[in-house]
Amino acid sequence: MQMKRNTILLAAAALLVVALAVATMPAVAHHAFGAEFDPNRPLLLKGPVIKVEWVNPHTWIHMEVEYEDGTKQVWMVEGGTPNTLLRRGLTRDSLAPGTYIVVDGYQSKDRSARANGRDVTFEDGTKVFMGSSGTGAPKDGRDPTEPPNRR
Q1: Number of domains within the chain
Q2: Which range, 20-29, 64-73, 129-138, has the best average confidence (pLDDT)?
C-alpha cells in the first residue's frame, strides 16, 4: 500500500514538473498577416541583402534601403517558411549578402522598418512569390511602386 502511494506521489510530482516546464517555455506561434502587418501600407523596397535568417516559422531577409535623400535604413522582411522558399527556388545562394533585390510587400502596423514580403524580384527580372499562403495577406489591388513609408 505504501509503495502504491509513493508511486502515485512520484507520478504526480513528475507531472507537476512537466507542467511547470511547459508553462515557462516561450511560446512560438504562427501569426496571421493582419496581426502584425497593415494591408493599407504597401511598399516597395530596393537594395542589397545584408543577411537572411532561415528560421521557422518565417524567414527574415535583412536588406539595406537607400532613400532619395541618401540616408540608408536596414529593413527586416518576413517571408514564408524556409522549406516553402526552397521549393519556390529561393536558396541561401540566391539571397547571398550583396545580392540586389526588390521586394514588394506591406509595412508593419507599428511603422517600424519591418515588412511582410509578397514578391522578391532579382536584377535579371526573375520574380518569386515569397509570402506565406493562408495568412490573410492581400492578394492584389495595391500599388507597390510607391516608396516605402518612413516613420
Answers
A1: 1
A2: 64-73
